[in-house]
Structure formats: C-alpha cells, structure tokens
Amino acid sequence: MPLQPASRVEQFKQDLGKLRAQALQGGGQKRIDTQHGKGKLTARERLKILLDEDSFIEYDQLVEHRCTEFGMEKQKFPGDSVVTGQGTINGRIVYVFSQDFTVLGGSLSEAHSLKIRKVMDKAMLTGFPVIGLNDSGGARIQEGVDSLGGYAEIFQRNVLASGVIPQLSVIMGPCAGGAVYSPALTDFIIMVRDTSHLFITGPQVVKTVTHEEVTAEELGGADVHTKMSGCAHLAADNEIEALQATRTLFDFLPLNNKDRAPRRFTEDHRMRQDLSLRRIVPDDPNTPYDMHDIIHKIIDDNDFFEIMPDYAQNLIVGFGRLEGRTVGIVGNQPLHLAGCLDINASVKGARCVSFTHAHTHTHTHTHTHGHARWRWPVIRESGTQKFAGGWQGAGGKGWV
C-alpha cells in the first residue's frame, strides 16, 4: 500500500536526518579514532576551532561522488571528503574548506573539487578571504582525469584570486601530489610539526625511482619548508596552535584588495616617545644589534606578527600596527650575516612587499610608473651595508 503524503514527508525527514548524521561522522567512528590516535583533529573539529562560535554555515553537506568504476559506487559518504562553507573570524566573514582524511584519505574527487570551487567563486564574487585546511593524499585515482581536471580548475581560481583576496593554507596532514600545488599558489602556508608534510611524491616513490631512503619529515616536513625551502611561512607544534596562528594572521589582513586594512583599538598614543631608540644602534658599525628590538618599540602595543622567522634570518618581515592600522614591516637583521641580503632574503622580502602592494591603502608614490594606489604602508628598516657576495650568498645559484 503506497504511503500517504504525510507519511512520505515524515519518511523523507527521517532519511534526511540519517544522511546529515552520517555526514557529521565523516568516514565513521573507527577512522575518527585513528585520526585522533595520530594526534590530529577531524575536519569539523578544526573548523570549530578556527571560526567564531556558531558562525559556520555549511554548503553541500550531502553531496556525494559520482564514480561507479572500481567498486566506488559502494564507497559513498555524504559530503564526500571535504567540508565547505563560510563563517567568521572575530566577526569578519571568511570562506573555508576543510579536507576530511577519514573519508578516502581526503582524496580529491570531481565532487570534492566542485565544492572547493564553489566557495572560491563565492569568495571572489563577494570579496572575502579563503582559508583551506589541507589534509589530503592527492587525486582520487579511481576517477582518473576527472580528478586531475578538478585540480586544474582549483589552480585556475588560485591564480585569479591572487592579489584580489587573501588566500591562506593550513597544512594539517600528509599532502602529496596535486594536493600541494594549490597551497603553493596561496599567500600564506602554515604547517604543523611532525604531522603535516608537503611533497610532490612520497618517500616510497622516491626510493623506487632514485634508490634514496628518506623519511616523510626529511622530505617535506615543517622544518624543511620553514627553514630550507621557504615554501611555508610558519610552523606550529600542534594543530590548535596552527589554527590560532591562522586567526591571528587573519586579523592583520584586509578582506580584499579594495578594503582598508582592519583597524583595532589601541591606547598606544601616536605621540608616544621612546628615548631608548636614541641609543639602540651601537656607535661602532661592526657591533651587531637586534632589529626586533627596534620593531617592537615602534609598533603599537609591542604586537609584531613575524612571517617566515626561520628562513633567511638576515631579513625580518611581518605585520604590525600603527595607530591601530596594519602595516607591513621589512627590516634587515644585523645579528645574521650582518644583515646582508642574499638571494633567499631578497626573495623573502619581495614576497612580503608583493603581497602588501596588492592590498595597500594609503599613499600614492610618484616614483612608480603611472599612479599606483598603495593601500597598505610598508615600513622599511635598513641595517645592512651590502649584498652578500660569492657562491654562498647566491644560494648556490651563481655568483652575486
């Protein structure tokens, strides 16, 4: 006997409730326990820490992949392997996606890609930043070219959004293959020590091809990318610290390239004098000093957020505030290589200036070609005498 209309509605509500409950469980309790056993949070737990309380609005919670090859029709999970939506950080809107490693290793399917592309499109349309919490094994090989095409679409949006809205990537697990290209195209990368990795291909493939035995940490760990390659900007000791650092960094950033940098109330008066600045630079030019001391005395409330602190330490870059407004800071560090610039330091400084140039909002500098609008000031603190010469100063890339 067919169900009556009222019964069909009730049955639909029950089925919908079951699907939503299943979506909240990701890959299931057993895989969640495995995730926790590795010292890692789930995709939804990470969003709960990153965003303001009760601010998350989820998109496409019940979307499933459409692959029917290799038995994939039997491995379907509501929401697939990524959680997407929007929320707020200290009251300001941000679009987010969080890859779920408990669902098929966080691998990227066509449906997974469509969900990420949707939030990126909305972010560019409305002018709000995008934060990606990356924890993915790469492409879902069962979907073949559909998965690879999905990556290409994401990369295209990374490029289109560059310089228009801030893009932040937090690496929360082993990201390999296609999963590392998108973060590399974003403005800032934050990693977690011991549990997050970035590499084109993993240690097993390296061993097979080159016969070189290397661990995941040696190949693409947080220390490698924050100290040697310069691919990552910050490293945290655990996921909670990484997410808190992301919130702090977000507070310094404008929402888009037409928005003014956020302003925060401060009691640090603009006319404040610090007489110690008269004596902080030694009379002897051969005596080093710490440029951090000068930066902290100049900015509001001693609040300096340093970017890439472990890479090219002869140059300091980061963000601070003057009269409550964000400013970019670039300063030579006399304690390292006497503050001389080498290739790594030059690239580090150029990346910071390039970002602030795209999101600046105050002066017009007539020495530039035309009339470029600078909406975000950059403070340049120089404590160097020269460029580093020789093969070492060139980073092994040629003589300077």
Would you give an account of this structure?
- This protein has 400 residues and is α/β, with parallel strands linked by helices.
- It folds into 2 domains: 8-66 and 75-252, 2-enoyl-CoA Hydratase, Chain A, domain 1 (Alpha-Beta Complex), CATH 3.90.226; 275-393, 2-enoyl-CoA Hydratase, Chain A, domain 1 (Alpha-Beta Complex), CATH 3.90.226.10.
- Helix content is 35%, strand content 18%.
- The chain is built from 13 helices and 15 strands.
- The strands form 4 sheets. The protein has a 7-stranded mixed beta sheet, with helices on both faces. It has a 4-stranded mixed beta sheet with strand order 10-11-12-15, sandwiched between helices.
- A hairpin with a 2-residue loop joins β11 and β12 (325-332).
- α4 runs parallel beside α5 (145-161).
- The longest helix is centred in the first third of the chain and has 20 residues, at 5-24.
- The radius of gyration is 24 Å and the shape is globular.
- The relative contact order is 0.08.
- Mean pLDDT is 86; it is low at 361-374.
* CATH architectural type of the largest domain: Alpha-Beta Complex
Instruction: Determine Rg (CA atoms, Å).
Output: 24 Å
User: Structural class, please?
Assistant: alpha/beta
Oligomer: single chain
The CATH superfamily of the largest domain is identified as: 2-enoyl-CoA Hydratase, Chain A, domain 1
Query: Quick check: average pLDDT?
Result: 86
Distance between the termini: 86 Å
**Low-confidence spans:** 361-374
| Main CATH class of the largest domain | Alpha Beta
Question: What is the tally of helical segments?
Answer: 13
Percentage beta strand: 15-25%
Main sheet summary: 7 strands, mixed
Helices and strands, in order, run as HHHEEEHEHEEHEEHHHEHHEEEHEEEH
Percentage of residues assigned to helices: 25-40%
CATH topology of the largest domain: 2-enoyl-CoA Hydratase, Chain A, domain 1
How many structural domains?
2
Number of E-state strands: 15
Shape: globular
Identify the strand order in the major beta sheet. 1-2-3-4-5-7-9
